[in-house]
Amino acid sequence: MKTTSPFTILLVLSLIVFQACGQNKKAKNTTTAPIENTLKKPSNPYYSHTDTTKLHLTDAQWKKILPEDLYLVSRKADTERAFTGKYWNTDIKGTYYCAACGNLLFRSSSKFASSCGWPSFFEQENKNSIVFKEDNSLGMERIEAICGRCEGHLGHLFDDGPEPTGKRYCMNSIALDFVADNK
What we know:
Helices cover 17% and strands 22% of the residues. It is α+β, with helices and mostly antiparallel strands and 183 residues long.
């Protein structure tokens, strides 16, 4: 049996960390399925593009109705790896909604190519669609972006975006649903 040298293991781990930190800016969009212009979520009775009533569900209720990957991001503030989400490199015209509750978040006209590996927007659709709180996790000072309806984790807000706002809403693709404009 051949053993792997510590140097080889260190090299492989370094490459993984390098890519996970968003340094691979030439990665291609990995979307394989076509983007739908309708959304069906029969297992989630709270999902709506029109209801703006605040949701107050227990963690157990969310766990029951959300897919595990969305549950981990939305309810536990997990983060998907850079350059892996289906919307990071998408430029189709349409509307982005909270994948947990259906709340209107962004129009594609506010999306821009930030090369960070996550979908980025410079402006939210309305002042109530996203709320913010301090996030000092992982030894960093950041501003967490949370859905204004279900309080699900979406991503973070940074002050390095383009004009006219100078903001970059750095979102997890898994936390977003997209509906393309009708042609």
